[in-house]
Design brief:
alpha/beta, Alpha-D-Glucose-1,6-Bisphosphate, Chain A, domain 3, 7-stranded antiparallel sheet, 18 helices, binds 1-O-phosphono-alpha-D-glucopyranose, binds zinc ion
C-alpha cells in the first residue's frame, strides 16, 4: 500500500450527475485518484467498528472505463474496503448498478459514466457515487466530496497487478474480495419480477415487431438477453448491440436528433410496431410508435396512467414525481388517479427521498428519463418493457394509446430547445438580465398570452427539508403555457442553454398538431423575453427534442 502525495486540482465539482470531464482531463496525473480519494474520505471505506465496507463498481464501457476500474479497485483496497462487486469487464448499466447496490445491501457504489455524452480518447468520461439506497449521492454529499478535492494532500493506492475482470467469480486484491458478476442476470430477473413476460412472449410470438437501438452502448447485452433471448423478439431486433469504447462514433443520446436512424425507420414504409433506444449508460429511453414520436413527458403520463396493467404495479401508484421542466401531463394523470404528485429540480437525485419514503412510485424527466421505485436511477429498459407490457394488455398501437390519452386528459404540447457551447460569460449575463426582469413580468402581454407568474424555481424536499435554489427560471402564462430556462449541469464545454416550452390544449379540437407548430408563439415569446440572440449570438437551437 502506498500513500501518494498530491495537490488539489481545480474544477472537481460534481454536476447534475457526478463529475464529468473530457477524457484527457480524467486521465491526467492524479485527476481520477484525487476524486476517488475524496469519495472515500467522505463516505468512508470502513464502518465505525473498523470493518471494511462493500461497494459495487461498474461503468458504461466507454474509453478509459477498464483502466479507471483497476485504479478504483486498488484505491478501494488501500482505503480498507472489504469487498467490491464488479460487473464483468467493469461493465454495468447505471440501473443495473443501482439494483446490485440494493440487492446486495452494499454501502454504495461507484459508477463510471458520462451517460449520453460521446465517449473516446477526446470525448467525455465521468465518475459518480451512489448511496446504499442505490441512488446518486445527494447534494450535501457531493458538495462534501468537492470540498475534499480542494484540500486533498494525499491518496492511498495498492501496488498490484490488474484484477482479471473478464473472469466471473471471486478474486482477491490485497486482502479485499473482488466479486466479478454477470452484469445482466440479476437485472433481467428484476425485470421479470415486474412485467408479464409470458404475455410479452405471446405478443412477440404473434408477430409483434420491434426495433431497439442500443447505440453501441451499454444496453446492448441487456436488450439482447431480455428482448431476444427471454421474450423471443426476432434475432436482430436489437441493433448497435455491441458496446464500444467510442460508441462507434455515435452520440449515444436517445432523442430524435441523435437516434435519427431509428426515427427514419419508424416513420418509413416498413416500420415495425414499436421502436426504442437507450443511452450510453442505459438509464435514458426514447419510445417511438409506427409513425408517431412519444415525447418523454407524454411517455411519463401514459406510463403513470397504465402502470397498473403490469404485475409489478397492479396495486396502483403511491404518487408520481416529475422534474420541474417536465410537462404537466403527468400531473393531470395523478389528479385523475387521486394520488400525490411532486415537482422536483432537474436530476434524478431529487427523486430518491420520495421513493425511499414511499411517497412516489413512478418518476420522470423530460430528458428521456423514466423510472420507478424498483431502483434509484432512471431506467431505460424498464420504461421500454413497461410500454411493451401496456401494449400487450391493451392490444392497441402506440398512436391509438396516445390519442386516447390526449382525448381524456388534453395534450401538453412540449419541446426543448438546446443552445450548446455558448461562452459561459454570455450565458451568465443572459441569466442575470433574465432574473432581474422577473419581478416586472406578471401581467405582461406577449404573443397573445399574459404572464401570470415568473420566478426562479426553488425546492424544499418534503422528506428532509433540504432547500435547493436557482433551479431554473420559470415564466408561466394564464392559458397554461410555460417557458423554463436553465443551464445544463452535465455539459463539459462552455454553457448549454436549455429552453423548455409547453402549451396546453384541452381538446377535443387541436390535439394532433406538430409540436413545433403548436408551440410557435411560445417559442417566439421565449426568445423575446430572454433576448437569446442578443446575448448568445444564436437564433436557432442545435438540438430540438
Ligand atoms: C441532463 C438532463 C437531466 C438529467 C441529467 C442526467 O442534465 O437535463 O434531466 O437528469 O442530464 O441524465 P442537465 O445537462 O440539463 O443538467
Ligand atoms: Zn444516462
Amino acid at each position: 500500500m502506498t500513500t501518494v502525495q498530491t495537490a488539489p486540482i481545480a474544477g472537481q465539482k460534481p454536476g447534475t450527475s457526478g463529475l464529468r470531464k473530457k477524457t484527457p482531463v480524467f486521465m491526467g496525473r492524479h485527476y481520477l485518484e484525487n476524486f476517488v480519494q475524496s469519495i472515500f474520505d467522505v463516505v468512508g471505506a470502513r464502518h465505525a467498528d473498523g470493518a471494511g465496507k462493500t461497494f459495487v463498481l461498474g461503468g458504461d464501457g466507454r474509453y478509459f472505463n477498464d483502466r479507471a476500474a483497476q485504479v478504483i479497485l486498488r484505491m478501494a483496497a488501500a482505503n480498507g474496503a472489504a469487498r467490491v462487486i464488479v460487473g464483468q469487464g467493469a461493465i454495468l448499466s447505471t440501473p443495473a448498478a443501482s439494483h446490485l447496490i440494493r440487492l446486495n445491501q452494499t454501502d454504495g457504489g461507484i459508477i463510471m459514466s458520462a451517460s449520453h455524452n460521446p465517449g473516446g480518447p477526446q470525448e467525455d468520461f465521468g465518475v459518480k457515487f451512489n448511496m446504499p439506497n442505490g441512488g446518486p449521492a445527494p447534494e450535501g454529499v457531493t458538495e462534501a466530496m468537492f470540498q475534499r478535492t480542494v484540500e486533498i494532500t494525499e491518496y492511498r493506492i495498492l501496488e498490484a497487478h490488474d484484477v482479471d475482470l473478464s473472469r466471473i467469480g471471486r478474486h482477491e486484491l490485497g486482502g479485499m474480495i473482488v466479486d466479478v458478476v454477470d452484469p445482466v442476470s440479476d437485472y433481467a430477473a428484476l425485470m421479470e419480477s415486474l412485467f408479464d413476460f409470458a404475455a410479452l412472449r405471446a405478443m412477440f410470438a404473434g408477430g409483434f415487431r420491434m426495433r431497439m437501438d442500443s447505440m453501441c452502448a451499454v444496453t446492448g447485452p441487456y436488450a439482447v438477453q431480455i428482448l431476444e433471448s427471454r421474450l423471443g423478439a426476432a434475432k436482430g431486433t436489437v441493433i448497435n448491440a455491441t458496446p464500444l469504447p467510442d460508441f462507434g462514433g455515435m452520440h449515444p443520446d436517445p432523442n430524435p436528433t441523435w437516434a435519427k436512424a431509428l426515427m427514419d425507420e419508424m416513420f418509413g414504409p416498413d416500420a415495425p410496431d414499436f421502436g426504442a433506444a437507450s443511452d450510453g449508460d442505459g438509464d435514458r429511453n426514447m419510445v417511438v410508435g409506427r409513425g408517431i414520436y412519444v415525447s418523454p413527458s407524454d411517455s411519463l403520463a401514459v406510463l403513470a396512467a397504465n402502470a397498473h396493467l403490469a404485475p409489478g404495479y397492479k396495486a396502483g401508484l403511491k404518487g408520481v414525481a416529475r422534474s420541474m421542466p417536465t410537462s404537466a401531463a403527468a400531473d393531470r394523470v395523478a389528479d385523475a388517479l387521486g394520488i400525490a404528485r411532486y415537482e422536483t429540480p432537474t436530476g434524478w437525485k431529487f427523486f430518491g427521498n420520495l421513493l425511499d419514503a414511499g411517497r412516489a412510485t413512478i418518476c420522470g424527466e423530460e430528458s428521456f428519463g423514466t423510472g420507478s421505485d424498483h431502483v434509484r436511477e432512471k431506467d431505460g429498459l424498464w420504461a421500454i418493457l413497461l410500454w411493451l407490457n401496456i401494449l400487450a394488455v391493451r392490444k392497441q398501437s402506440v398512436a391509438d394509446i396516445l390519442k386516447d390519452h390526449w382525448a381524456k386528459y388534453g395534450r401538453n404540447y412540449y419541446s426543448r430547445h438546446d443552445f450548446e457551447a455558448i461562452a459561459t460569460d454570455r450565458a451568465d449575463a443572459m441569466f442575470a438580465a433574465l432574473r432581474a426582469s422577473l419581478a416586472g413580468l406578471p401581467g405582461r402581454q406577449i404573443e397573445g398570452m399574459t404572464v401570470s407568474a415568473a420566478d426562479d424555481f426553488a425546492y424544499t424536499d418534503p422528506v428532509d427539508g433540504s432547500v435547493s435554489t436557482k433551479q431554473g427560471v420559470r415564466v408561466m402564462f394564464s392559458d397554461g403555457s410555460r417557458i423554463v430556462y436553465r443551464l445544463s449541469g452535465t455539459g463539459t464545454e462552455g454553457a448549454t442553454l436549455r429552453v423548455y416550452l409547453e402549451r396546453y390544449a384541452a381538446g377535443p379540437d387541436g390535439l394532433d398538431l406538430d409540436a413545433q407548430v403548436a408551440l410557435a408563439p411560445v417559442i417566439r415569446a421565449a426568445h423575446a423575453l430572454a433576448g437569446i440572440t442578443a446575448h448568445t449570438g444564436r437564433s436557432e437551437p442545435e438540438v430540438i427534442t
